[in-house]
Amino acid sequence: MGRGDxxxxxxxxxxxTSWVPDGIDLERPSAxxxxxxxxxxxxxxxxDRELAERxxxxxxxxxxxxRHNRSFLRRSVLFMVERGVRQFxxxxxxxxxxxxxxxxxxxxxxxxxxxxxDYEEVAYAHSTLMLVDNPLATIVQADLTRPDDIxxxxxxxxxxxxxxxxxxxxxxxxxxxxxxxxxxRLVAHYRDAIPVGSYxxxxxxxxxxxxxxxxxxxxxxxxxxxxxxPRSHAEITALFAGFDLVEPGIVPTAKWRPDPxxxxxxxxxxxxxxxxxxxxx
Length: 281
Ligand SMILES: C[S@@+](CC[C@H](N)C(=O)[O-])C[C@H]1O[C@@H](n2cnc3c(N)ncnc32)[C@H](O)[C@@H]1O
Prior knowledge:
36% of the residues lie in helices and 16% in strands. By secondary structure, the protein is α/β, with parallel strands linked by helices. The strands form two sheets. Strands 3, 4, 5, 6, 7, 8, 9 and 10 form an eight-stranded mixed β-sheet that branches. The site of S-adenosylmethionine (SAM) has 23 residues, from helix 1, helix 3 and strand 4.
């Protein structure tokens, strides 16, 4: 990985430039940097922010949706930790922000291990910087639609024990996997690599909850590197083949085991994204 250490034309709101990889195409907005912007992060560029503003126009509660998804990720990791899981494979991990998986898991148990995976340059560069002093967490830059590149990566094999339960995290990422990549086969490939008693946490955009906003988002994202493919409740349920869904099943993110006293803003269906957790049987 190369990292820019000079100011970059069109660069974002951060003074720190070491997370800017050499050769990155600043003209092509990415989902990783859009999500970072929606969550209030500073690791994004002018074109990402333009895309994000169009995204917000198409879906006015986009920021809330992003926060709900991030919150589901946290609750699902804690759920798995409480059930004894101490190692995580986080596919489409994104640009580090508040409440990263290793922080959540290692707060519960400092020995917890995490392999992050993302194909986006800034996500990889910034994660690498963040994890430099953390021997129990790493990032693999890879495309999750090529599972063997991830499962056979030396970092993955060194850190994760595939004879012990693994928390497989696919939060907010499968809406970037086109139908032609056979999402069912992909999830099954990862499922078959992990032992019985492992868990899958999954969340993705759907048309079921807010169809017209979703249609507009799909149009907006066509001009990014990461076009989007929403899925129905039935399609997402099918991806959990081989897993027993835990209560409450596949529900809008805000309805998945909310924290006590959690305020969903009045209408949890406006979370826009379905989420669920299953245990491999
Ligand atoms: C919306 S972010 C979600 C981040 C985090 N998982 C969360 O839920 O908060 C989606 C991330 O998935 C990454 N991504 C999308 N498609 C991918 C693929 N085929 N392989 C690896 N990463 C991918 C994007 O680069 C982006 O960082």
